[in-house]
Amino acid sequence: MKLFTALLSAFLFASYLQAEPRPNFMIIIADDLCWRDLGYEGNAEVRTPNLDRLRGESMHLRGMFNPATSCSPTRHALYTGLYPIRSGAYPNHTRVYDGTKSLFTYLKQAGYRVALQNKEHVGPEPSFPYEHIEGADDLTVTRTFVTRDAAQPWLMVFASNDPHGPWTRGPKYDASRLTIPPYLHDNKITRELLAAYYGEISRLDEQVGALMTMLKDTQQVDNTLVLFVSEQGSSFPYGGKWSVYDNGIHASALLRWPGRVKPGSTSTALMQYVDVTPTFLEAAGIDPTKIDVGCPDAHGGTGFDGRSFLPVLRGESDYCRDYVFAQHTTLGTNGALEAYPMRMVRNARYKLIRNLAPANTYTIGGIHQGEPIESWQADAKTDAKLATRVKWLFKRPGEELYDLQADPEETKNLADDPAFAQTKAKLQGQLDAWIAQQGDKGLETENLANTRQGKSDAEPRKEKKKGKKKAAQ
Questions:
Q1: DSSP strand E in 271-368: where?
Q2: pTM for this structure?
Q3: Is residue 257, in this structure, part of any structural domain at all?
Q4: Distance of alpha carbon 346 from alpha carbon 270, whole angstroms
Q5: Which of 5, 116, 207, 219 is 20 to 30 Å from the Cα of 124, by its Cα?
Q6: Neighbouring residues of 44: CB distance < 8 A, sequence distance ≥ 6
Q7: Given this model, what pLDDT does residue 458 score?
């Protein structure tokens, strides 16, 4: 009887998907935003009323993680359902291997019109066949796109440039009144930069409000699945970007889908950006397990690295995966002097980090040059605790192990503690298996980073300004 009931439920749901109109999809992506720096995530000093309202209308996906810690590989993973090294999109300013497909490809083939507004940072073009819309704050063309044909569903990615530095937009915050997060050093320069960064988060929040108003004004709010994600951390030292600590790989994520997802609900299921494409495809009535992604893994597998979390959205489960993975490739990042690749595996409680070149010095432009690091280094001359913290930004051991329940700030490395040897060994096994499946050769892969940059094999890497932002970081 239980088997019959389960089969009947599956049949009815499949019939429901066919009977119901296919949803529109809107993905809103922040740019260099740490998940902690939002009102609904507990930061009462950042003004994000529109995102806070969206949280009340959405499921808060508190177990969402990204698999990389710079913009381009993160976005490739989100759109392809593949981890960065497998797809070839693992350094910054990167591209996937020719023939790889994306969410834009699949939905366009299924009759959707597809577009991306603002920041691109993906390639080559055949793998991402979207219409490109310029303009961060002008939704005139956006509105035209979503209303072009009432009978045709659409996918729109709104890839904001905020709050990527330089922080020059948005309302003013009083630097003297801010509470400095514990992972940052409190001095005048840090405060001024944090106030400017918070201003751009509020500017992002205004964009979110305008997008939701547009959906309401065009009578599309009830049949549009909206996903907001925060990307991979801020560019402050220890703000998350360019590291595999949780400030970087833990993403804030909200998913709103009227009539399907319970407003104000929460899930703690572990999931990753690579799971988004399979989930959206299933929501559109497409079986993601039947798709050849155009980029085989090292074992010959042709399916997604990601998996659908639609049962989580329907409230039928609070499980997606047991482990999440991430990597960081230093070479190809502005100011990088030496290879300093990182690999990471995490479950609900513990995290293992493998730094593949610990004898090198980790040095890139974003963290290790300019402000605020220079003011931190000056203050560290008379502050031994800060000096130790600053040193860690440049040199880390080969392995790091953290108990995230007891140490959420990841300050106590347990890698050499015999009490955690069994936990470490289990995580090592999972990390080794993922590395093998991805075809990751460690330093050999890292040293090939420059061959994976540029939008196509025929076009070398170009650093150019788009709007107020510099794509080079």
A1: 271-272, 324-328, 342-346, 350-355
A2: 0.93
A3: yes
A4: 10
A5: 207
A6: none
A7: 65
